[in-house]
Amino acid sequence: MERRVAERLRSALGPLGLEAHAFKVGWYNAVLQPAFHLPYPDDTLAFVILSTPSMFDKALKPFVNKERLKIIRDPVDQCVSHHLSRVKEKFPDQRVDVMFDYEMLPSRKPKFLAQTAAHVAGAAYYYQRKDVKLDPWGKKKIFGVCIHPKYGGWFAIRGLLLFPDIQVPFLEQPTPVDCVSTEEKRIELLEQFNFHWQDGRYRDIIEVKERYSEEQKAYFATPPAERFRLLGLSQETQ
């Protein structure tokens, strides 16, 4: 069952520059405190959805051109929401729940922890402070970051698709590719991400097969309120 769902998702999302990676809710819940658990049985089938560098040209720009007058919030969020809603229609006999990376619970906690989901699904390796043996940071707060084996840091985690009626007790958990395998490189990665994230160097911590175009880099480097202008949208639309 998981294979059929995965194939249908990949045929729908792949041409848009989006990836779908399967996992069991239990894998995710097992590594988190109860406050962050997803409220589904452990064997529930879920997919974490990533955007790759090609999403900008394959999905976002066509969406903006077509839906120009209907864009009232962040264009990327609205584009992903639009396409994942359409994917739900491909499963008319299944309940499909969608969670987006920007959604919050009433407690102001995120609905799901995106990087943990990507790691347990084997989509990207979530490098954290605990992955460094000789910690050089003392009392500093150090945030972790996911690295994709193909795109490095040139990708984003956009949402989850959950299939509450599909239980997959025999699904085997993939191991994420440990592509930043040396102590020195892991320290360099976490240093760059935590203290120099604006320059984006952490994204190229490994040799990548594809990265954001110059146009896309400019878009994401622009303050959100000014991005509408880059896409040819008026401020009134916003």
UniProtKB/TrEMBL annotation:
Family matches, as Pfam families: MMACHC
Source taxon at top rank: Eukaryota
GO terms of biological process kind: cobalamin metabolic process
Cited CDD domains: MMACHC-like (cd12959)
EC number annotated for this UniProt entry: 1.16.1.6, 2.5.1.151
A molecular function GO annotation: cobalamin binding
Catalytic reaction list: apo-[alkylcobalamin reductase] + an R-cob(III)alamin + glutathione = cob(I)alamin-[alkylcobalamin reductase] + an S-substituted glutathione + H(+); apo-[alkylcobalamin reductase] + adenosylcob(III)alamin + glutathione = S-adenosylglutathione + cob(I)alamin-[alkylcobalamin reductase] + H(+); 2 cob(II)alamin-[cyanocobalamin reductase] + 2 hydrogen cyanide + NADP(+) = 2 cyanocob(III)alamin + 2 apo-[cyanocobalamin reductase] + NADPH + H(+); apo-[alkylcobalamin reductase] + methylcob(III)alamin + glutathione = S-methyl glutathione + cob(I)alamin-[alkylcobalamin reductase] + H(+)
Localization: Cytoplasm
Predominant cellular place of this UniProt entry's protein: cytoplasm
Cofactor(s), by name: FMN; FAD
Keywords for this protein: Cobalamin, Cobalt, Cytoplasm, FAD, Flavoprotein, FMN, NADP, Oxidoreductase
GO terms for cellular component: cytoplasm
Family: Belongs to the MMACHC family.
PANTHER family assigned: CYANOCOBALAMIN REDUCTASE _ ALKYLCOBALAMIN DEALKYLASE, METHYLMALONIC ACIDURIA AND HOMOCYSTINURIA TYPE C PROTEIN
Protein name per the record: Cyanocobalamin reductase / alkylcobalamin dealkylase
Lineage: Eukaryota, Metazoa, Chordata, Craniata, Vertebrata
